Amino acid sequence: MAEAADELSTPLGQNTAGRTRRFRLPFTAMQALAVLLGLVLVGFAGVALFNDNPLGGEPIARIALRNPAPAAADDKHAPAGQAAEPAVKSAARAPAAAGDTKNDARTVTIIDGSSGKRQDVVIGAGDPAEKTDGEAPPMAMTGIDPRLLEKSRYGMIPVVADGLKPFTVYAAEADRAKAARMPVIAIVVAGLGVGAAKTTDAIMKLPPAVTLAFTPYGADPGKLAERARSQRHEILLQIPMEPFDYPDNDPGPQTLLTTLSSEQNLDRLYWHLSRLQGYAGIANFMGGRFVATDPVMQPIVREAAKRGLSYFDDGSSPRSVAQTLSAGQSLPFAKADFAIDAVPTSAEIDRALVKLETIAKERGTAVGVASALPVSIERLGAWLKTLDSKGIMLVPLTTAMLKSKSG
Q1: What separation in angstroms does the CA of 199 have from each of 7, 87, 205, 241, 368?
Q2: For the chain, which residues make up each domain, given as ranges?
């Protein structure tokens, strides 16, 4: 009777005899995912709390340094705990011995994972040795005098030593006696270091007497600056300074600002000074508001004089106090008469260059500034070839500074 009742209550066309009960998990997929993420977070927290890492997770680079056979023999006789030091020294010398890395010096930081001790090793710079606290800095660039370098928290920065100044040591060669007797023109091509192609064009296509100014930015401004010096260009370092429309118009990281204290601006200045080596002076990069503000400019000009540098004003701010402050510090100084490519067309650039010739003949010295635009490089290259026939001498900026000072 019960079977008949089941058959009567069963929906037509369905057979319940083969139906099985589905298995269901006691939690949902979202709950499982939440538990999994929680376990991952707990794992990270455990590593952070209980892992003994003195570097606090700071990224480190690991390199393989091969030891020559003689060094391996010496290590056998080294005291316990000191075998690694000779190995580092010999490995650092190996690239120089090969003779093909003269212009490819690299500073590698070796970090001891247990103690956190840092050690800088210069590789491929002739006969380098490791740099540690309290030791003289190595010569990391061709032609750099290590005596004119001082260690800061950011790296090596210029300093006066043994009566030598970076301004005189890194000034490009010029016939200054001849320059004193005839009209001279100095050309500064600025904004280099960001954009390897345009920087290389300026280095290779313009004569050595053209001064090149580098910004502290770019992937490797030091390498490009070294290439410029190898082509006998003298170089300047441009210091980013606050423009009137800051922060809408931002020169870049570590910009010197009128709202900062002198100590803060000097700290930022040191960061810029450490970005490359071998420059004869500094120059403003933008900075309309900063260069017109006496209280914030004074410490910068004073520091430049203290470190044996010069100062170049690109002439973009008519209210700049740099010239007056430089005179007060006996700081070598020059100001651009105008930008020759303010209107970047061939016709306007040619017209500006003729104007520069007129100023040189009337005053004895003229200074023009340009960017590394292809049209600027092309017109400058053609025009510079005509100066000798016009009785005008192209000179590095340092020569123009010295002539103006003596005049």
Answers
A1: 92, 38, 10, 22, 18
A2: 60-133, 167-406
Cα–Cα distance for residue pair 149/137, rounded to 1 Å: 7
Distance CA 369, CA 50 (A): 58
pTM of the full structure = 0.68
For Cα atoms 154, 281, 138, give the angle at the middle one, nearest 5 degrees: 45
- Quick check: 159 and 308 in contact, CB under 8 A? yes
**Cα–Cα nearest to 178, from 395, 404, 407, 405:** 395
Dihedral over Cα of 369, 194, 290, 325: its sign: negative
108-158, pLDDT tens digit by residue?
A: 555 554 445 555 544 444 333 333 333 334 344 568 999 999 999 999 999
Token duo for residue 303? 């520091």
Q: pLDDT tens digits for 307-335? A: 999 999 999 999 999 999 999 999 999 99
CA neighbor of 195 nearest in space, from 374, 394, 382 = 374
Q: Could you give the CA distance from residue 362 to residue 357 in angstroms, rounded to a whole number?
A: 9
Residue 394 C-beta-side C-alpha neighbours within 13 Å? 20
Residues 6+ apart with CB under 8 A from 110: 63, 88, 118, 119, 120, 121
Residue 231 backbone zone (phi > 0: left; psi -120 to 50: alpha; other: beta): alpha
CATH top class, domain 167-406: alpha beta
